[in-house]
Write a structure and sequence with these properties.
The chain has about 170 residues and is of the alpha+beta class. It is about 35% helix and about 25% strand. The protein contains four helices and six strands. Helix 1 (about 10-25) packs antiparallel against helix 2 and helix 1 (about 10-25) runs parallel beside helix 4 (about 145-160).
Length: about 170
């Protein structure tokens, strides 16, 4: 059961180390993929400051399909190569967008979003989905966020029962 209080620290590396330990405790003994991803997104939604949307897009039928999320209703299908999520899925690289209004082809689901980070989830060399986080604050995400969230998605890549999804 999740009983953690809000993590309060100015040390972002310590913050992500703690978040990732909490994630491991949530997903390593769970076998249902939906419960795993729902708890992962709830953890970030509860712990991260200055965000207005956090969720997953899962790779299905050669496109990204909306998965568990917290925030306003979102786009349900994203073609590979389109928008920040589709571009991250295509390149298998994390993308930090400091100002979404300057990203050519940005898909706006929430007009309040100003910056975004998208981290691909790869298991066995295959794309499984992306973690997408939006913020109403420009320049919200740093390289420390990228490193911490890449470790977060690695925990998911190694523990989620992907065969039951895609």
């Amino acid at each position: 059961m999740y009983r953690a209080k809000k993590i309060v620290t100015d040390d972002l590396e310590l913050y992500y180390k703690t978040v990732n330990k909490l994630l491991e405790s949530q997903v390593c003994f769970e076998t249902d993929w939906l419960a795993q991803l729902a708890n992962a997104v709830a953890l970030l939604g509860h712990q991260m400051a200055d965000i207005n949307w956090v969720g997953f897009y899962l790779y299905k039928n050669d496109e990204l399909v909306l998965g568990p999320f917290q925030g306003k209703p979102a786009c349900t299908h994203i073609p590979i190569g389109q928008g920040v999520c589709g571009t991250s899925a295509e390149t298998l690289e994390t993308i930090i967008v400091t100002d979404v209004h300057e990203f050519s082809g940005h898909i706006a689901c929430d007009a309040a979003s100003a910056s975004e980070i998208v981290v691909p989830i790869v298991n066995g060399g295959q794309l499984k989905g992306v973690l997408d986080i939006d913020s109403p604050v420009k320049c919200r995400f740093s390289l420390i966020d990228q490193n911490g969230l890449e470790k977060f998605t690695k925990i998911l890549a190694d523990n989620v029962h992907w065969n039951n999804i895609c």
